[in-house]
Known about the structure:
rod-shaped, seven-stranded mixed sheet, mainly beta, about 425 residues
Amino acid sequence: xxxxxxxxxxxxxxxxxxxxxxxxxxxxxxxxxxxxxxxxxxxxxxxxxxxxxxxxxxxxxxxxxxxxxxxxxxxxxxxxxxxxxxxxxxxxxxxxxxxxxxxxxxxxxxxxxxxxxxxxxxxxxxxxxxxxxxxxxxxxxxxxxxxxxxxxxxxxxxxxxxxxxxxxxxxxxxxxxxxxxxxxxxxxxxxxxxxxxxxxxxxxxxxxxxxxxxxxxxxxxxxxxxxxxxxxxxxxxxxxxxxxxxxxxxxxxxxxxxxxxxxxxxxxxxxxxxxxxxxxxxxxxxxxxxxxxxxxxxxxxxxxxxxxxxxxxxxxxxxxxxxxxxxxxxxxxxxxxxxxxxxxxxxxxxxxxxxxxxxxxxxxxxxxxxxxxxxxxxxxxxxxxxxxxxxxxxxxxxxxxxxxxxxxxxxxxx
Length: 414
Protein backbone atom coordinates (compact mmCIF):
# COMPACT_ATOMS: atom_id res chain seq x y z
CA UNK A 1 0.00 0.00 0.00
CA UNK A 2 2.82 2.31 0.87
CA UNK A 3 4.43 1.58 -2.46
CA UNK A 4 1.23 2.35 -4.31
CA UNK A 5 0.87 5.62 -2.41
CA UNK A 6 4.41 6.62 -3.22
CA UNK A 7 3.87 5.87 -6.87
CA UNK A 8 0.76 8.03 -6.89
CA UNK A 9 2.62 10.87 -5.24
CA UNK A 10 5.42 10.55 -7.77
CA UNK A 11 3.00 10.64 -10.68
CA UNK A 12 1.28 13.73 -9.23
CA UNK A 13 4.61 15.50 -8.73
CA UNK A 14 5.66 14.71 -12.27
CA UNK A 15 2.39 15.98 -13.61
CA UNK A 16 2.70 19.11 -11.51
CA UNK A 17 6.25 19.65 -12.73
CA UNK A 18 5.21 19.21 -16.33
CA UNK A 19 2.35 21.67 -15.81
CA UNK A 20 4.60 24.25 -14.18
CA UNK A 21 7.15 23.85 -16.94
CA UNK A 22 4.45 24.44 -19.55
CA UNK A 23 3.23 27.50 -17.72
CA UNK A 24 6.73 28.91 -17.43
CA UNK A 25 7.33 28.25 -21.10
CA UNK A 26 4.08 29.93 -22.05
CA UNK A 27 4.81 32.90 -19.87
CA UNK A 28 8.22 33.29 -21.44
CA UNK A 29 6.72 33.04 -24.85
CA UNK A 30 4.04 35.60 -23.99
CA UNK A 31 6.60 38.00 -22.57
CA UNK A 32 8.63 37.73 -25.71
CA UNK A 33 5.54 38.63 -27.78
CA UNK A 34 4.40 41.86 -26.07
CA UNK A 35 4.07 44.81 -28.46
CA UNK A 36 3.82 48.35 -27.09
CA UNK A 37 2.17 50.53 -29.73
CA UNK A 38 0.78 54.07 -29.79
CA UNK A 39 -2.30 55.28 -31.62
CA UNK A 40 -2.00 57.56 -34.63
CA UNK A 41 -4.30 59.26 -37.15
CA UNK A 42 -3.32 59.94 -40.71
CA UNK A 43 -5.20 63.21 -40.32
CA UNK A 44 -5.63 64.80 -36.92
CA UNK A 45 -7.26 68.07 -38.00
CA UNK A 46 -10.93 68.05 -38.88
CA UNK A 47 -13.54 70.63 -39.80
CA UNK A 48 -16.33 71.55 -37.45
CA UNK A 49 -19.69 70.23 -38.61
CA UNK A 50 -18.21 67.90 -41.24
CA UNK A 51 -18.79 64.14 -40.89
CA UNK A 52 -15.66 62.05 -40.06
CA UNK A 53 -14.75 58.42 -40.67
CA UNK A 54 -11.07 58.02 -39.89
CA UNK A 55 -9.09 54.81 -39.22
CA UNK A 56 -6.93 54.70 -36.11
CA UNK A 57 -3.62 53.03 -36.88
CA UNK A 58 -0.60 51.75 -34.90
CA UNK A 59 2.64 53.63 -35.07
CA UNK A 60 5.81 51.78 -34.24
CA UNK A 61 6.32 48.44 -32.48
CA UNK A 62 8.81 47.23 -29.90
CA UNK A 63 9.20 44.26 -27.59
CA UNK A 64 9.26 44.91 -23.94
CA UNK A 65 8.24 43.24 -20.71
CA UNK A 66 4.60 43.68 -19.93
CA UNK A 67 3.67 46.75 -17.96
CA UNK A 68 3.05 46.49 -14.28
CA UNK A 69 -0.15 48.51 -14.49
CA UNK A 70 -3.38 46.66 -15.11
CA UNK A 71 -4.55 46.03 -18.60
CA UNK A 72 -7.97 46.65 -20.04
CA UNK A 73 -9.28 43.87 -22.16
CA UNK A 74 -10.31 45.65 -25.39
CA UNK A 75 -12.40 42.67 -26.53
CA UNK A 76 -14.59 42.62 -23.46
CA UNK A 77 -14.79 45.86 -21.55
CA UNK A 78 -13.42 48.08 -24.29
CA UNK A 79 -10.80 50.77 -23.72
CA UNK A 80 -11.11 52.97 -20.72
CA UNK A 81 -10.56 56.70 -21.29
CA UNK A 82 -8.45 58.40 -18.73
CA UNK A 83 -9.71 61.46 -16.89
CA UNK A 84 -7.03 63.66 -18.44
CA UNK A 85 -8.85 64.21 -21.70
CA UNK A 86 -11.88 63.59 -23.87
CA UNK A 87 -12.90 63.18 -27.44
CA UNK A 88 -14.40 66.23 -29.18
CA UNK A 89 -18.17 66.39 -28.72
CA UNK A 90 -19.88 64.54 -31.52
CA UNK A 91 -17.05 62.01 -32.09
CA UNK A 92 -16.71 58.42 -30.96
CA UNK A 93 -14.37 55.46 -31.61
CA UNK A 94 -15.79 52.20 -32.88
CA UNK A 95 -13.43 49.64 -31.32
CA UNK A 96 -15.25 46.75 -32.95
CA UNK A 97 -13.77 47.70 -36.30
CA UNK A 98 -10.34 46.62 -37.44
CA UNK A 99 -8.66 48.99 -37.34
CA UNK A 100 -10.77 51.03 -34.94
CA UNK A 101 -12.61 53.95 -36.54
CA UNK A 102 -12.97 57.55 -35.37
CA UNK A 103 -16.50 58.47 -36.47
CA UNK A 104 -19.09 61.20 -36.02
CA UNK A 105 -19.57 64.92 -36.69
CA UNK A 106 -17.70 67.32 -34.40
CA UNK A 107 -19.86 70.00 -32.82
CA UNK A 108 -17.19 72.02 -31.03
CA UNK A 109 -13.90 73.39 -32.25
CA UNK A 110 -10.62 73.35 -30.38
CA UNK A 111 -7.76 70.95 -29.56
CA UNK A 112 -8.61 67.71 -27.75
CA UNK A 113 -6.06 65.28 -26.31
CA UNK A 114 -7.36 61.91 -25.16
CA UNK A 115 -5.35 59.36 -23.10
CA UNK A 116 -6.47 55.76 -22.56
CA UNK A 117 -5.48 53.19 -19.98
CA UNK A 118 -3.29 50.32 -21.11
CA UNK A 119 -5.24 48.29 -23.65
CA UNK A 120 -4.70 44.65 -24.61
CA UNK A 121 -6.68 42.32 -26.77
CA UNK A 122 -7.96 39.06 -25.34
CA UNK A 123 -4.83 37.13 -26.35
CA UNK A 124 -2.62 39.46 -24.29
CA UNK A 125 -0.06 39.55 -27.06
CA UNK A 126 -0.98 42.93 -28.62
CA UNK A 127 -1.07 45.84 -26.19
CA UNK A 128 -1.12 49.63 -26.18
CA UNK A 129 0.71 51.34 -23.39
CA UNK A 130 -1.20 54.43 -22.26
CA UNK A 131 -2.19 55.25 -25.88
CA UNK A 132 -3.09 58.88 -26.64
CA UNK A 133 -3.64 61.22 -29.55
CA UNK A 134 -4.60 64.84 -30.14
CA UNK A 135 -7.43 65.92 -32.42
CA UNK A 136 -7.88 69.48 -33.66
CA UNK A 137 -11.33 70.65 -34.70
CA UNK A 138 -11.17 73.83 -36.72
CA UNK A 139 -13.99 76.11 -37.80
CA UNK A 140 -15.30 75.65 -41.30
CA UNK A 141 -13.80 77.93 -43.89
CA UNK A 142 -15.87 80.40 -45.86
CA UNK A 143 -15.35 82.66 -48.84
CA UNK A 144 -16.91 85.93 -49.93
CA UNK A 145 -18.26 86.74 -53.38
CA UNK A 146 -18.25 90.50 -53.98
CA UNK A 147 -18.72 91.69 -57.53
CA UNK A 148 -17.40 95.08 -58.60
CA UNK A 149 -20.36 97.49 -58.77
CA UNK A 150 -18.80 99.38 -61.68
CA UNK A 151 -18.47 103.13 -62.18
CA UNK A 152 -20.95 105.22 -60.19
CA UNK A 153 -22.06 108.85 -60.23
CA UNK A 154 -21.56 111.24 -57.35
CA UNK A 155 -24.77 111.92 -55.49
CA UNK A 156 -26.15 108.40 -55.89
CA UNK A 157 -26.43 105.76 -53.15
CA UNK A 158 -25.89 102.40 -54.85
CA UNK A 159 -26.64 99.16 -53.03
CA UNK A 160 -23.63 96.91 -52.39
CA UNK A 161 -24.16 93.17 -52.75
CA UNK A 162 -21.89 90.43 -51.41
CA UNK A 163 -22.46 86.90 -50.13
CA UNK A 164 -20.51 84.48 -47.93
CA UNK A 165 -20.58 80.74 -48.54
CA UNK A 166 -21.47 80.35 -44.87
CA UNK A 167 -24.69 82.26 -45.40
CA UNK A 168 -23.60 84.76 -42.74
CA UNK A 169 -24.07 88.47 -43.36
CA UNK A 170 -21.20 90.34 -45.02
CA UNK A 171 -20.14 93.74 -43.69
CA UNK A 172 -18.66 96.60 -45.71
CA UNK A 173 -16.10 99.24 -44.84
CA UNK A 174 -14.48 101.98 -46.90
CA UNK A 175 -10.75 101.96 -47.50
CA UNK A 176 -11.03 105.45 -49.04
CA UNK A 177 -13.13 107.56 -46.62
CA UNK A 178 -12.08 110.73 -48.43
CA UNK A 179 -14.04 109.53 -51.45
CA UNK A 180 -16.75 107.25 -50.05
CA UNK A 181 -18.08 106.14 -46.69
CA UNK A 182 -20.34 103.45 -45.29
CA UNK A 183 -22.98 104.67 -42.87
CA UNK A 184 -23.86 102.85 -39.67
CA UNK A 185 -26.85 101.47 -41.54
CA UNK A 186 -24.60 100.04 -44.26
CA UNK A 187 -25.46 102.68 -46.87
CA UNK A 188 -22.76 103.66 -49.36
CA UNK A 189 -22.42 107.42 -49.80
CA UNK A 190 -19.96 109.44 -51.86
CA UNK A 191 -17.96 112.32 -50.42
CA UNK A 192 -16.41 113.39 -53.70
CA UNK A 193 -15.60 112.07 -57.14
CA UNK A 194 -12.53 109.82 -57.39
CA UNK A 195 -11.67 106.16 -56.79
CA UNK A 196 -13.68 104.37 -54.10
CA UNK A 197 -12.40 101.14 -52.52
CA UNK A 198 -14.81 99.01 -50.47
CA UNK A 199 -13.78 96.06 -48.28
CA UNK A 200 -16.13 93.13 -47.73
CA UNK A 201 -15.62 91.07 -44.55
CA UNK A 202 -17.24 88.19 -42.68
CA UNK A 203 -15.88 87.74 -39.15
CA UNK A 204 -17.12 84.17 -38.71
CA UNK A 205 -18.77 82.63 -35.67
CA UNK A 206 -18.58 79.47 -33.59
CA UNK A 207 -18.93 77.35 -36.70
CA UNK A 208 -17.08 79.34 -39.35
CA UNK A 209 -13.68 80.93 -39.41
CA UNK A 210 -13.34 84.51 -40.60
CA UNK A 211 -13.41 84.82 -44.37
CA UNK A 212 -10.57 86.35 -46.34
CA UNK A 213 -11.31 90.00 -47.06
CA UNK A 214 -12.41 90.89 -50.57
CA UNK A 215 -11.95 94.44 -51.91
CA UNK A 216 -13.37 96.17 -54.95
CA UNK A 217 -12.35 99.54 -56.37
CA UNK A 218 -14.41 101.58 -58.79
CA UNK A 219 -14.62 105.09 -60.19
CA UNK A 220 -16.96 107.73 -58.81
CA UNK A 221 -17.75 110.07 -61.69
CA UNK A 222 -18.96 113.66 -61.36
CA UNK A 223 -22.74 113.72 -61.22
CA UNK A 224 -24.87 114.94 -64.09
CA UNK A 225 -26.77 118.13 -63.34
CA UNK A 226 -29.63 119.90 -65.10
CA UNK A 227 -30.81 123.51 -65.21
CA UNK A 228 -34.36 124.82 -65.01
CA UNK A 229 -35.63 128.36 -65.33
CA UNK A 230 -37.77 129.22 -62.33
CA UNK A 231 -39.04 132.54 -63.71
CA UNK A 232 -41.58 133.03 -66.48
CA UNK A 233 -40.52 135.06 -69.49
CA UNK A 234 -42.46 138.31 -69.98
CA UNK A 235 -45.19 138.27 -72.60
CA UNK A 236 -45.28 142.01 -73.28
CA UNK A 237 -41.65 143.05 -73.14
CA UNK A 238 -41.04 146.29 -74.97
CA UNK A 239 -38.07 148.49 -75.62
CA UNK A 240 -37.61 150.80 -72.69
CA UNK A 241 -40.39 149.06 -70.82
CA UNK A 242 -40.32 147.34 -67.43
CA UNK A 243 -37.22 145.24 -66.76
CA UNK A 244 -37.17 141.48 -66.18
CA UNK A 245 -35.29 139.54 -63.48
CA UNK A 246 -34.77 135.96 -64.68
CA UNK A 247 -34.01 133.13 -62.22
CA UNK A 248 -32.81 129.57 -62.73
CA UNK A 249 -31.60 126.72 -60.55
CA UNK A 250 -29.36 123.69 -61.06
CA UNK A 251 -30.15 120.25 -59.68
CA UNK A 252 -26.69 120.30 -58.08
CA UNK A 253 -27.58 123.36 -56.04
CA UNK A 254 -24.71 125.25 -57.64
CA UNK A 255 -25.23 128.82 -58.83
CA UNK A 256 -26.47 129.27 -62.39
CA UNK A 257 -24.89 131.96 -64.57
CA UNK A 258 -27.32 133.98 -66.73
CA UNK A 259 -26.07 135.82 -69.81
CA UNK A 260 -27.53 137.34 -72.95
CA UNK A 261 -26.86 135.35 -76.07
CA UNK A 262 -24.66 137.17 -78.59
CA UNK A 263 -27.48 137.05 -81.12
CA UNK A 264 -29.56 139.29 -78.84
CA UNK A 265 -26.98 141.90 -77.89
CA UNK A 266 -28.94 144.62 -79.73
CA UNK A 267 -32.25 143.57 -78.21
CA UNK A 268 -31.59 143.11 -74.51
CA UNK A 269 -28.84 143.45 -71.92
CA UNK A 270 -28.33 142.15 -68.40
CA UNK A 271 -26.68 143.83 -65.44
CA UNK A 272 -26.81 142.67 -61.87
CA UNK A 273 -29.20 139.93 -62.90
CA UNK A 274 -31.71 142.40 -64.35
CA UNK A 275 -32.59 142.36 -68.06
CA UNK A 276 -33.29 145.64 -69.87
CA UNK A 277 -34.78 145.92 -73.34
CA UNK A 278 -32.87 148.08 -75.78
CA UNK A 279 -34.20 146.95 -79.14
CA UNK A 280 -36.97 145.01 -80.74
CA UNK A 281 -36.61 141.40 -81.73
CA UNK A 282 -35.95 138.17 -79.86
CA UNK A 283 -34.23 138.27 -76.47
CA UNK A 284 -32.36 135.04 -75.77
CA UNK A 285 -31.08 134.37 -72.25
CA UNK A 286 -28.50 131.62 -71.70
CA UNK A 287 -28.36 129.67 -68.42
CA UNK A 288 -25.12 127.79 -67.69
CA UNK A 289 -23.55 125.89 -64.81
CA UNK A 290 -19.88 125.00 -65.32
CA UNK A 291 -19.76 122.21 -62.74
CA UNK A 292 -17.03 121.37 -60.22
CA UNK A 293 -15.19 118.34 -58.91
CA UNK A 294 -18.41 116.53 -58.10
CA UNK A 295 -20.67 117.76 -60.88
CA UNK A 296 -20.09 117.84 -64.60
CA UNK A 297 -21.04 120.94 -66.57
CA UNK A 298 -24.77 121.18 -67.17
CA UNK A 299 -26.26 121.35 -70.63
CA UNK A 300 -27.10 124.94 -71.48
CA UNK A 301 -30.74 125.97 -71.18
CA UNK A 302 -32.16 129.03 -73.00
CA UNK A 303 -35.18 131.23 -72.49
CA UNK A 304 -36.43 133.27 -75.42
CA UNK A 305 -39.15 135.88 -75.76
CA UNK A 306 -40.13 138.72 -78.08
CA UNK A 307 -39.35 142.35 -77.38
CA UNK A 308 -41.61 144.77 -79.22
CA UNK A 309 -40.93 148.39 -80.22
CA UNK A 310 -42.06 151.18 -77.95
CA UNK A 311 -45.45 152.69 -78.48
CA UNK A 312 -45.14 156.33 -79.47
CA UNK A 313 -47.42 159.34 -79.35
CA UNK A 314 -47.24 162.08 -81.97
CA UNK A 315 -48.63 165.49 -81.02
CA UNK A 316 -49.01 168.38 -83.53
CA UNK A 317 -49.18 172.00 -82.48
CA UNK A 318 -49.61 175.04 -84.82
CA UNK A 319 -48.34 178.49 -84.00
CA UNK A 320 -48.84 181.74 -85.97
CA UNK A 321 -51.58 183.90 -87.51
CA UNK A 322 -53.93 181.81 -89.47
CA UNK A 323 -54.32 184.25 -92.34
CA UNK A 324 -53.50 183.70 -95.91
CA UNK A 325 -49.90 184.54 -96.63
CA UNK A 326 -48.95 184.59 -92.95
CA UNK A 327 -46.32 182.27 -91.48
CA UNK A 328 -47.52 179.16 -89.72
CA UNK A 329 -45.18 176.91 -87.66
CA UNK A 330 -46.12 173.27 -87.26
CA UNK A 331 -44.39 171.46 -84.37
CA UNK A 332 -44.48 167.65 -83.98
CA UNK A 333 -43.51 166.20 -80.60
CA UNK A 334 -42.88 162.42 -80.48
CA UNK A 335 -42.98 160.64 -77.15
CA UNK A 336 -40.85 159.13 -75.87
CA UNK A 337 -38.34 161.80 -76.78
CA UNK A 338 -35.55 159.25 -77.19
CA UNK A 339 -37.09 157.98 -80.41
CA UNK A 340 -35.30 158.88 -83.62
CA UNK A 341 -36.38 159.05 -87.22
CA UNK A 342 -38.33 161.44 -89.38
CA UNK A 343 -41.61 163.30 -89.20
CA UNK A 344 -43.70 164.01 -92.28
CA UNK A 345 -46.08 166.96 -92.12
CA UNK A 346 -49.15 166.51 -94.31
CA UNK A 347 -52.12 168.51 -95.44
CA UNK A 348 -54.61 165.78 -96.01
CA UNK A 349 -52.88 163.38 -98.36
CA UNK A 350 -50.37 165.97 -99.53
CA UNK A 351 -46.89 165.97 -98.07
CA UNK A 352 -45.82 169.38 -96.98
CA UNK A 353 -42.41 168.57 -95.55
CA UNK A 354 -40.38 165.71 -94.08
CA UNK A 355 -37.80 166.43 -91.46
CA UNK A 356 -35.54 164.76 -88.95
CA UNK A 357 -36.44 164.93 -85.29
CA UNK A 358 -34.15 166.40 -82.75
CA UNK A 359 -34.79 165.08 -79.23
CA UNK A 360 -38.22 163.96 -80.31
CA UNK A 361 -39.21 167.27 -81.90
CA UNK A 362 -39.60 168.30 -85.56
CA UNK A 363 -40.86 171.65 -86.94
CA UNK A 364 -42.08 173.00 -90.24
CA UNK A 365 -42.88 176.60 -91.14
CA UNK A 366 -44.86 177.72 -94.19
CA UNK A 367 -46.64 180.75 -95.69
CA UNK A 368 -47.82 178.91 -98.74
CA UNK A 369 -51.04 177.39 -97.52
CA UNK A 370 -53.94 178.39 -99.63
CA UNK A 371 -57.10 179.91 -98.33
CA UNK A 372 -59.60 177.28 -97.39
CA UNK A 373 -60.01 174.22 -95.20
CA UNK A 374 -56.96 172.15 -94.30
CA UNK A 375 -56.43 168.91 -92.37
CA UNK A 376 -52.92 169.08 -90.98
CA UNK A 377 -51.17 166.04 -89.42
CA UNK A 378 -47.68 164.89 -88.38
CA UNK A 379 -46.70 161.31 -89.19
CA UNK A 380 -43.78 159.72 -87.34
CA UNK A 381 -41.92 157.02 -89.31
CA UNK A 382 -40.69 155.01 -86.33
CA UNK A 383 -37.20 153.52 -85.89
CA UNK A 384 -35.57 150.33 -84.63
CA UNK A 385 -37.04 150.76 -81.17
CA UNK A 386 -40.08 152.96 -81.65
CA UNK A 387 -43.35 152.29 -83.42
CA UNK A 388 -44.69 154.72 -86.01
CA UNK A 389 -47.53 157.03 -84.99
CA UNK A 390 -49.65 159.82 -86.46
CA UNK A 391 -50.93 162.89 -84.69
CA UNK A 392 -54.57 163.71 -84.45
CA UNK A 393 -55.68 166.15 -87.23
CA UNK A 394 -55.76 169.81 -86.32
CA UNK A 395 -59.37 170.62 -87.10
CA UNK A 396 -59.61 173.95 -85.27
CA UNK A 397 -57.56 175.90 -87.72
CA UNK A 398 -58.43 174.53 -91.07
CA UNK A 399 -59.43 177.78 -92.72
CA UNK A 400 -57.09 180.59 -93.60
CA UNK A 401 -58.49 184.03 -94.39
CA UNK A 402 -57.79 187.73 -94.11
CA UNK A 403 -59.96 189.31 -91.44
CA UNK A 404 -62.55 186.82 -92.54
CA UNK A 405 -62.60 188.53 -95.92
CA UNK A 406 -62.02 186.25 -98.85
CA UNK A 407 -58.68 186.79 -100.46
CA UNK A 408 -60.29 187.85 -103.75
CA UNK A 409 -62.11 190.73 -102.05
CA UNK A 410 -59.17 192.27 -100.31
CA UNK A 411 -58.78 195.92 -101.30
CA UNK A 412 -55.74 196.78 -103.24
CA UNK A 413 -53.17 198.99 -101.73
CA UNK A 414 -53.82 201.48 -104.42
